[in-house]
Amino acid sequence: MRILVAEDDLALLDPLYFVLSEAGHIVDAVAEGDSARWLLGEKDYDLLILDWMLPGTTGLSLCQQYRQLGKTAPVLMLTAKDTTIDKVTGLDAGADDYVVKPVDLIELLARVRALGRRSPLWVGESLSLNDVQLNLTTLTLERHGSTIRLSVREFQLMEYLMRHPRQVLTRGQLEQALWEWGTEPESRAVTTLVHRLRQRLEELEIADWLETVYGMGYRLNSKGES
Amino acid sequence: MKPIALSWKTLPLRSRGTVILAIPILCLLAAVAIFGSYQRSLNKDKRLVAEVKQIKIVTKQLSLTLSHAQSGIQNYSLTGDRQFLISAESAIEQLPRLTARLKQTSPDIAPLKVQLQQTQQQLEQQRSTVDRVRQAEDRSVLYQWLQQNDTVLNPTRQLLDRLIEQEERQLEQFQTNLLQQQQRGLWFIWGFILVGAISTIVAIALFRQLAKELSDRESQLQQANQQLTEANDRLQRFTADASHELRAPVAAILGQAQAGILAHENYPQLVVGRLHTIVETAKSMATLVNNLLFLARHEGTHSLNVQAINIVPLLIQISETYTIAANQSEIQFSATIPELPILLRVEPDLLKQAIVNLLDNALRYTQAHGTVQLQVSLRKDSVVIVVNDTGMGIPTEDLPYIFDRFYRVDRARTKTGGFGLGLAIAKQITQIFGGEITVSSQIDQGSQFQISLPRSNPD
To answer: Is the pTM of this model over 0.80?
Structure first.
């Protein structure tokens, strides 16, 4: 999932970014309200994690603005405000979940998975293409009983390819989708990543599924029996 | 007038309300009683007038009847016409009935009645002798008889005339009385109207005063209520701020430690164990924060009534601690503490907390090679504890808010640590002991905080 995290306390933003990325998500992490507002207008997210108190604005008004744009991705409010009135206010502003700081990150990941399951994109704990399954929780790829564990980067690419099977995806599209906002991929980064993933796919004897379409980009295409 | 007004105002509301109601009711009752007795005496006078009138009428009738009887007999004796005799007889017959109608209201009535009875007998005697006298040959007998009869009846007639005259006078007097009485009644009514109006005005004035007092009390209550609401709002804001300030670092610690645990499965066991300890500690700290917030939200106001203690040893201990701390920051620290015992009614731990907070601030905002001073001096009624520093100072516009909870001057200062609670706590402690805290400061010159506490007499 692509997640926006807005939290002004860098000491908390950093671990949030880390654990969410480790779980296979592509995370845009920002520390102030204006960047968050700009990103909400620019990009599509599958989940928002907003701190209530942000420099420049509040998570609450961000949430309201986001809903006014007509967007439906789940919003999780992360805040130190713990009274019932605060919780009601937050949920009424359009938030789907409300977590009081200090939050146990293990619990937060569980909540993120729960919110992901409510997403219209949700197709189950794993994505399938022909006889290959990509497990979204364990970041593993399975075929004919053999399983390999992908790195976070490999998983993110594989997930994106499996969500767009048989489509030609340009390097630009892949960069947009897989690189976080503000990070500049090196010129051969996509090529390198595709090469690495192909090597991993070789372990399941499906390296030829990831085709290079010369002059255009890449395509995931199942081969074999089907 | 003033003591009455004062004691009136101190009376309970119920008594005052009763008095206000009693004034018109008592006036009404008094009016009814006085008017009733006046009516009674008026009726008595009217009755007297009526009696006198009746006596007058009856005596006049008696006088007339007597004349009828006598003239009837005389005319009969002279003319022999029986018609006269019949008229005289009926007049004689009427006499006792009229006599009976005379009431014994005057002392003159009883002799009159006796006289009338005699007169009747005399008339009956004349009636019985008239035929004999008339038939006598000698007319001189008749004339003599007639003359004799006249003299016999004269006293009665005179008595009647006198009585009539007397009753006439009495009637006149009674009627004058009655008129005066009625005049007085009119004055009574005017008097009642006046007294009633005055008492109504007094009652209304008292009632209005009472109503005003009640509305004053109500507005006082509303004011007090508003102050309580504001105090409660401030408390709510404080706990909301505290909630954020306390939870954010705990959240960061917890998050960092958990991220560390998740970062690599192949960290040495020792490191993972330590990270787990941090996670557990952070979680228990979160619980502590929750408890503290709970306490703050349910905080009541305190007033401490404690024994007076000598604060000098405490001050010496503080100055020793801060001499070391200042040395480490390369700040010059000096303390001026009187040698004589200083007795104050304070809780030593709280007083220490207040002074320590001021000294911590002074050290925090003073650069190396600066100076921090603790000066304690005795005044007539108070003890003054001053903390001086040569630090960065506080902008004038921030000074009014410097003792507010979680107030921090700017972000640059925020980096020097602290929650912005130290001065608020120092102020609250000072207030608990009935003292006050003040600040003066100049940018880049330094700040001076001054706690003054009331001195207590040794007892």
So the answer is: no
